[in-house]
Amino acid sequence: MTLESIECGESGSSLLSHHTCLDEDSEGKFPELRWTAPPTGEVKEYALICEDLDLPIPYLVIHHGFFFNIPPSTTTACHTDIVHQEANVNAHVTNSGWVYIPNLKGTSYIGAAPPLGHGPHRYVFTIIALDSPLNLSSHDKVTKEQMKDAMIGKVMGWGQWTGVFERPWTEYA
């Protein structure tokens, strides 16, 4: 499988400012992504993950977005897809009907915002094709670990794209 950013270019490219804390709302938008289906088998559901691998705390990875229940006919993602559906107050559901696991801010997605002067951070986006649904509820407090456990034996393939962003001290001095 391949995963690419329509806006940013090949994996390892810089995220655009509107994908980061430099955006006008200081939150950052989800980059436009496009993926291919695995070469064999019938996809029943996709999961999509975004994680920052370069935190200043060793062995800690922060998830910026964790989505599942993505229909098998879907091959793109953009910011409007991942925004919380306001009508579903008690459920973690996006405008596109995807289910999300709230991040540290309790939202569906956090844009790139590494600590000042910490150097480049890699934001890894992973699309995962599943051969059967995860059957996790949008009303339950599903954890990242429960989602990963539910994927065991169901993964058909995956693709990754990495966006890079840093905030040097010199830009804020």
From TrEMBL:
Coiled coil: none annotated. InterPro entries: PEBP, PEBP-like_sf, PhiB. It holds the Pfam family PBP. This is Phosphatidylethanolamine-binding protein. It comes from Aspergillus sclerotialis.
